[in-house]
């Protein structure tokens, strides 16, 4: 609550600065218009005086843009803490990603236990910023982990639980929750061989464009037209020959690389963090590329793609035949893919796991009284004390003890209609799902056998 009030105060202060800068920009514009009248109509001042309001206006534009970005970021921080409180108060349904696209109709218990959909376990848990994080969390909820894997996740979640600054920073990145990056498509694009390649070909292309530009200058200065005409004709022929491959490069990268800026921002924030738990250390090491940080490499790819997309700009269209802009940017994108593309799948998997762990850490932070499950190695068993349904508000939760194992092989649940039989069965099932994903559970104690399936 204290952080929410701090962020609200920051948002209010930024709103005041936004209005003040907007008014200053308006006043500067009016002053510039008045000065322009004195200069051009009345002839009462030198034209050099126009540089003063022009410079001031430019400075105000830069400052205003900075304030607008801070205001937007602070607003997202406010929203982050408001959603946190809403989850604690039981008012979270319909406020987050439902994960319905991850529901597999043939899954034995996902539908019965409300793992996906409105008001589902996925909606309660997921705070991932990228599609890779969402997909990883969805997979964990549907596929039980081995005991050693679950214990490693528990240690990672326990460490991330205290890193509130990290979780807040990730939450305020980008305009919308959930990056448009499709992890499967991006990994497939990276693994495919480049459509344009070769350092020599790229250097030859750059050299040809430079020679054509210089020949245009020679024509303008000395009237040497023939070299420019010959070189331009050669470039037009080259563009015509490579037009289909250029179109394939654009089509191949258009969908997979959507919203790479957010992916780079998430990576940059994770790269700043130091981890201690073995699994987080291992995942963080998986994001290392040697030399430049991975976030900068992804940002570089995003920049190349943005420059490639600028081929639709009117100025670029006019200059393209002389400077070969589209082909040069396409070669740059394909050179990046040839060098770094094969590692994309592993990078996305590591990032997705860190985000999924962060989501489960957020849930653990919001429910400090919920413990981690203690996995048993003996024969099939389930011992739960004070089990409650995670999707119900604490005020409505009815706690129950459940023991299954040893001589007790079957539990018969009976009672009148609306007495809570289905809720009890779902309570057991959902807590087993949480336990086998490595998350904390809604119980005083839960002791499942490793690999116990959660079924209704």
Number of strands: 3
Q: What's the main sheet like?
A: 3 strands, antiparallel
Strand arrangement within the widest β-sheet reads 2-1-3
Helix percent reads 55-70%
Shape: globular
Oligomer: single chain
Distance between the termini: 38 Å
On the 0-100 scale, what is the average pLDDT? Answer: 87
Strand and helix order: HHHHHHHHHHHHHHHHEEHE
> What is the count of helical runs?
17
Characterization of the model:
The chain has helices spanning 2-41, 51-89, 121-125, 131-142, 147-161, 164-171, 183-191, 199-222, 226-241, 243-254, 260-271, 278-286, 294-309, 314-323, 325-340, 344-366, 421-437, and strands at 381-387, 400-405, 445-448. It is mostly helical. Among the domains are: 2-89; 183-265 and 280-343, no CATH class; 381-448, no CATH class. The two termini are 38 Å apart.
In short:
The protein has 456 residues and is mostly helical. It is 62% helix and 4% strand. Among the domains are: 2-89; 183-265 and 280-343, no CATH class; 381-448, no CATH class.
Topology at a glance:
Layout: H1 2-41, H2 51-89, H3 121-125, H4 131-142, H5 147-161, H6 164-171, H7 183-191, H8 199-222, H9 226-241, H10 243-254, H11 260-271, H12 278-286, H13 294-309, H14 314-323, H15 325-340, H16 344-366, E1 381-387, E2 400-405, H17 421-437, E3 445-448
Antiparallel strand pairs: 1-2, 1-3
